[in-house]
Amino acid sequence: MIGARIPGAMQSYALTLDRLIDHAAKWHGAAEVVSAGEGGATSRIGYAGLRERSNRLSGALRKLGLREGDHLGLLAWNSQAHMECWYGAMGIGVVCHTLNPRLAPAHLADVIRQAGNPLLAISPDLAPLAEALMPLCPGIRHVVVLEEPGADLSLPDIPGVPVWRYAQWLAEYGEPVEWGGFDENLPAGLCFTSGTTGAPKGVTYTHRSNYLHTIHQLQADVIGLTVRDTVLVAVPMFHANGWGVPFSGPAAGAKLVLPGRHQDGASLAGLIEAEGVTVAVGVATVWLGLVDHLDRTGGAVPSLQRVLLGGSPVPQALMDRLEHRLGATVQTSWGMTEMSPLGTTTPATAPVRRAAQSGRPPLGVDLLLTDAEGVALPEQRGREGRLRVRGASVVERYFGHDAPATDGDGWFDTGDLAMIDASGNVSITGRAKDLIKSGGEWINPGEIEAIVGSLPEVAQAAVIAREHPKWGERPVLVVEPRKGAEISDETLMAALRAKVASWWLPDAIIRVAEMPLAPTGKIDKKRLGADYG
């Protein structure tokens, strides 16, 4: 009798994030991470050096008592030290809790208390904010002031709490430790939503979800970074992990350029030229500032090949202007904090790229259109529906919540309205919460915003609801004209009359010199509603 066959097997290889920087250090050790700071100062380090410092930082964290599962609070701009904190923490199973410095102290204190951060690492210029936070956050036992090029390293005055200079802390307590050895499903990061459409909710990223998100992002029709690329990470690392680029950059061996807190047009133009940036990632308002600067100075950025936009839909006129002035291909995308954040991306090689389209999902992300009750639309193409998602990098349950955030089939309701065309390209048509109910009928602000935003005289447009004694709600159009341009109410109305029903026309048009932005760089509709609603 022939003995029973033993089936073959593959190696067990935990998908933990320390493996990304290990790979970069071993195979792309000289590829640089460049940090920009005050007065045009820069610092640079290769991935091998960054890995060595991150590993010693792991030892320093342990010396201050942080253990697997603890949350390290990070109140910092994009910099080398910030990246070292990420990999140093994640390598020993400590969770990186990124905090948005643009939020109010009371808001920040609330999420710090929820996470139970025992240590807070801050950028030097945020010392006053840290001082304001400390009386509200008694659980913080240590504060570390990070190093940034050209920054004043004066320490905040925080009675009763040890405050460390980063270099001193690393020199005194840093020591090599063994990384990994834990389950790939262990939490790696914590990021709270911006709260622009409701109360902030915490999203926990795992090592496995971020590792797979990195692979999603490296697909050729997504960002597809290579060793030949130099990537400007103008999206803050506290916005959904810098959209994952601090992971995908090292994984590909690409050079990273971190701009710190200075993201004005002049600073970014200087960095792009000096470092030979080929790919730039960030919200549209950042690149609008860059093209305005280039228009004023007559400058150019010939090395730039691609710009990845996200955060919110952009008008076609703005996309056309960016491509013409920068000489680069604009890739539109859609995602959210709950998706790590990648949802869909338009390929750079697409023969037709329109601002209204957000592209297709990568392998690993699935989409479904439903009605308002969550029932799948029988026809998924050419119909508007409520967009639901699922995948390995999509939230299942919010931080601190017992109930799942998904339905019984694992679908997460994004709150977005969308259409999918015959080729599978997704267009986000609005937010379900933004819909305006007028006389019992629905008005979609997203459609009005897309029409007005396509006019060359308009920089940004937003539609909000205003209470009405007869109709319940009526739309109000808020417009930020492009600098130096004028556009009449009649021109705006004529553009709308040609494309929407008469009862969709706004009751009022309000012009603002500058559109208010939420901490994530999106238009702050809460503020607009409070001011004009």
In short:
The chain is an alpha/beta fold and 533 residues long. The chain is 27% helix and 24% strand. The protein has a 7-stranded mixed beta sheet with strand order 2-1-11-10-12-13-14, with helices on both faces. The protein has a 7-stranded mixed beta sheet with strand order 7-6-5-3-4-8-9, with helices on both faces.
Radius of gyration: 24 Å
Poorly predicted regions are none
Q: What is the number of E strands? A: 25
CATH first level of one domain: Alpha Beta
The biggest sheet amounts to: 7 strands, mixed
* Strand order in the sheet with the most strands: 2-1-11-10-12-13-14
Structural class call reads alpha/beta
CATH topology of one domain: Rossmann fold
- The helix content, as a percent range, equals 25-40%
The fourth-level CATH homologous superfamily of one domain is: ANL, N-terminal domain
Average pLDDT score = 94
Separation of the first and last Cα atoms: 83 Å
Strand content: 15-25%
Under the CATH scheme, the architecture of one domain is 3-Layer(aba) Sandwich
Helical region count? 14
Task: Identify the overall geometry.
Answer: globular
Account of the 3D structure:
The strands form 6 sheets. Strands 2-1-11-10-12-13-14 form a 7-stranded mixed beta sheet, with helices on both faces. The mean pLDDT is 94. Helix 7 crosses helix 8 and helix 9 crosses helix 10. Helix content is 27%, strand content 24%. It has 533 residues and is of the alpha/beta class. It is globular. The chain has 14 helices and 25 strands. The longest helix is centred in the N-terminal third of the chain and has 17 residues. Among the domains are: 188 residues, Rossmann fold (3-Layer(aba) Sandwich), CATH 3.40.50.12780; 75 residues, Roll (Luciferase, domain 3); 98 residues, ANL, C-terminal domain (GMP Synthetase, Chain A, domain 3), CATH 3.30.300.30.
